[in-house]
């Protein structure tokens, strides 16, 4: 039996060996708290309920199967939703929990960091509703043993008034796995009506007039039939972008300068343009990318290799100066030429170029226009995206070359850069992380900031964000990728618009680096990210929570100590915030003792402590108060060496009264009988 210590308040501090501490014990939940439980982020119930949602047809049937007939609550404490990829199963699961659990229940989306599903890694808190995606074929395949363990886990969930909903990719689910007690399995076999989903999203985005027009476009509506949930969401975005593109073209037609060089399809109606966009211009692109032509032929319509490179360059760059488009296309063409092909051509590159059409004619032949001042006019982002995706989907051998070309042609590392946007579109297009890993290998050393920008866009994507976060979680423990993870998380945390769940995911990955790395440089980089976070009110709250979790043994001590160090420079009315009257509810003395008990963390903490003392030295009252607050921590076990290092670091700090801070601490800490042995002028033995 464990030793149980009953306390009367939460402020009790324990330094001996106690197995259980409790103010009162109502029941014992059989769940051991471990540092390797799956991490999760809280989900805002109101945000989930505010999102456009369509639940009809087979989805409505599955929804009712998941609910108990007598109460509007899930039928079982564990619900497994099996669905093909891109069907919207995660949305289904979160909406189910948001609508059919008590308002006091905390919604948590878990990150599946494991080598194989294990019930022992699942967290258990009272009045929590957990959602977890199982979609990675290498690590997420559920087994019979896992389901058996979930059956037992369901009892603990019931005791805690909590729920767990798993979404499992259909190809990972073995139909021979039978239902267990306490576990409900539901199947999503058909997506909701795609047109209803598109209309719902357009209405929610304030595009009701566009909905009315869409209903009159018979061919466009036909293109929507049979789309799965993710494709329907993408179609809604495509329709809006195409409508905006159409309006820009119509407005531009009034410009005489453009009218002389308008794109070939400038006269397309909105219906034809939307219909073509919803089909990703497949028929049109099939003609352009037919059998490679050696020369351009208007009748045949198939593009030469050089023109294909030009069209891809336009798809990425859109409207840009003529030299920029030309150099970008030339870079791709050169990347595709075999390294040993230089001597096999009878014509030099200059002769081959001069034997063909001029650049202006080629630009017109691929559907763009050349305006005044040699500017290429190709303001067609939807069409450009379709071109990139067509080549990506149909030419597998081109993918790595395209990634390398886009990395090299990037003009910057912001999300607004065309190459960054194109990379973000392509690397997670097929719902796997293989291409993101390829991009990482290409860009991690030569263009780390660009790689971070791509990942920053990916983690905010509603469809592939979870995959991108999973990649960052795995990369966090790899030395070569950890700088990219830190950079990406800093971008996320610097974004004031980032919601709490997104910021929590970034904190989890920084914590993972701090916990796993043995590289001093990486630890310093995490500390720098935490210090940036400490400069903002929302950031200090997250760091305080990290320190609390550390002191409650629920988080990594390496990460918790860094969070504490990052909070040390924060000031409150000219004083160290952690030592002020408005200090947060954390045990500062315990944190200092933990930091100063290790030589490595002592070296990190001493500069911050000297900073505190320098800050307070000009004011005798503040200095005296801070000194008296620090002395108990410096008198703790194994503190002598740390105390001597601090006193030596304070040798040049003097109060206005002429008191040397180092000597003052020395007199308070070192017994006068030992002072001849341990002098400030030499290192302690």
Q: What order do the helices and strands come in, and which of them pair?
A:
Elements: E1 4-6, E2 20-22, E3 40-43, H1 45-50, H2 58-66, E4 78-83, H3 89-100, E5 106-110, E6 128-134, H4 144-159, E7 163-169, E8 183-187, H5 194-204, H6 208-215, H7 218-224, H8 229-252, H9 256-259, H10 270-278, H11 282-288, H12 305-317, E9 320-321, H13 322-336, H14 349-354, H15 359-365, E10 369-370, E11 375-377, H16 381-394, H17 399-409, H18 418-427, H19 434-443, H20 448-459, H21 465-475, H22 482-494, H23 500-516, H24 520-534, H25 537-551, H26 557-567, E12 571-572, E13 575-576, H27 588-596, H28 599-616, H29 620-634, H30 640-649, H31 661-669
Parallel strand pairs: 1-2, 4-7, 4-8, 5-6, 6-7
Antiparallel strand pairs: 3-5, 9-11, 10-11, 12-13
State the helical fraction.
Answer: 40-55%
> Major sheet, described briefly?
6 strands, mixed
| Contiguous uncertain segments of 5+ residues | 1-34
- Work out the number of β strands: 13
Number of helices: 31
Round the Cα radius of gyration to an integer and report it: 31 Å
Strand content: 5-15%
Principal-axes geometry comes out as globular
């Amino acid at each position: 039996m464990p030793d149980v210590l009953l306390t009367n308040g939460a402020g009790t501090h324990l330094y001996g060996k106690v197995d259980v501490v409790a103010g009162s014990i109502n029941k014992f939940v059989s769940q051991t708290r471990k540092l390797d439980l799956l991490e999760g982020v809280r989900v805002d119930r109101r945000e989930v309920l505010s999102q456009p949602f369509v639940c009809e047809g087979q989805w409505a049937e599955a929804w009712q199967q998941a609910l108990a007939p007598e109460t509007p609550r899930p039928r079982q404490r564990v619900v497994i939703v099996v669905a093909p990829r891109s069907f919207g199963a995660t949305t289904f699961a979160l909406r189910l929990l948001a609508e059919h659990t008590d308002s006091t229940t905390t919604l948590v989306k878990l990150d599946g960091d494991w080598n194989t599903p294990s019930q022992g890694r699942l967290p258990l808190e009272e009045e929590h509703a957990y959602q977890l995606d199982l979609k990675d074929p290498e690590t997420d395949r559920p087994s019979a043993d896992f389901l058996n363990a979930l059956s037992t886990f369901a009892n603990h969930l019931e005791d805690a008034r909590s729920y767990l909903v798993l979404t499992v990719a259909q190809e990972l689910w073995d139909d021979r796995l039978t239902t267990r007690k306490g576990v409900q399995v539901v199947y999503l076999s058909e997506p909701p009506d795609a047109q209803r989903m598109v209309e719902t999203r357009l209405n929610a985005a304030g595009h009701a007039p566009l909905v009315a027009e869409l209903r009159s476009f018979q061919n466009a509506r036909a293109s929507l039939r049979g789309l799965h949930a993710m494709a329907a969401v993408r179609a809604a975005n495509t329709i809006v972008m195409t409508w905006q593109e159409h309006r820009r073209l119509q407005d531009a037609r009034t410009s005489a300068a453009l009218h002389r060089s308008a794109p070939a399809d400038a006269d397309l109606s909105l219906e034809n343009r939307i219909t073509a966009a919803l089909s990703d211009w497949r028929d049109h692109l099939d003609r352009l990318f037919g059998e490679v032509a050696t020369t351009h032929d208007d009748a045949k319509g198939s593009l030469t290799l050089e023109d294909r490179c030009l069209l891809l360059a336009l798809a990425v760059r859109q409207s840009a100066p003529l030299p920029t488009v030309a150099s970008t296309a030339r870079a791709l063409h050169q990347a595709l030429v075999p390294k040993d092909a230089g001597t096999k051509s009878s014509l030099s590159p200059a002769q081959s170029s001069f034997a063909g059409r001029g650049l202006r004619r080629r630009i017109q032949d691929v559907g763009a226009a050349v305006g005044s001042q040699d500017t290429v006019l190709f303001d067609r982002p939807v069409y450009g995206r379709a071109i990139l995706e067509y080549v990506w989907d149909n030419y597998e051998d081109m993918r790595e070359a395209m990634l390398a070309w886009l990395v090299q042609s990037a003009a910057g590392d912001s999300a607004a850069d065309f190459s960054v946007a194109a990379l973000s579109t392509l690397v997670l297009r097929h719902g796997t992380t293989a291409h993101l890993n390829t991009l990482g290998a290409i860009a991690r050393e030569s263009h780390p900031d660009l790689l971070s920008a791509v990942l920053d866009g990916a983690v905010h994507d509603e469809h592939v964000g979870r995959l991108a976060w999973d990649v960052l979680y795995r990369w966090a423990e790899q030395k070569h990728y950890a700088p990219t993870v830190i950079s990406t998380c800093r971008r996320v945390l610097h974004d004031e618009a980032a919601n709490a769940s997104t910021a929590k995911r970034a904190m989890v990955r920084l914590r993972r680096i701090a916990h796993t790395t043995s590289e001093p440089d990486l630890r310093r980089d995490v500390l720098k990210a935490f210090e940036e976070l400490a400069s903002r009110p929302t950031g200090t709250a997250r760091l305080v929570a990290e320190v609390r979790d550390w002191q409650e043994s629920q988080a990594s001590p390496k990460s918790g100590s860094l969070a504490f160090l990052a909070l040390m420079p924060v000031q409150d009315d000219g004083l160290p915030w952690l030592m002020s009257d408005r200090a947060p509810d954390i045990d500062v003395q315990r944190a200092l003792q933990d930091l100063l008990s290790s030589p490595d963390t002592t070296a990190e903490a001493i500069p911050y402590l000297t900073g505190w003392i320098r800050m307070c030295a000009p004011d005798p009252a503040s200095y005296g108060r801070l000194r008296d607050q620090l002395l108990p921590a410096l008198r703790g076990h194994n503190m002598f060496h740390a105390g001597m290092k601090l006193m030596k670091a304070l040798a040049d700090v003097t109060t206005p009264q002429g008191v040397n801070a180092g000597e003052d601490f020395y007199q308070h800490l070192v017994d006068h009988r030992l002072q001849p042995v341990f002098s400030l002028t030499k290192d302690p033995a």
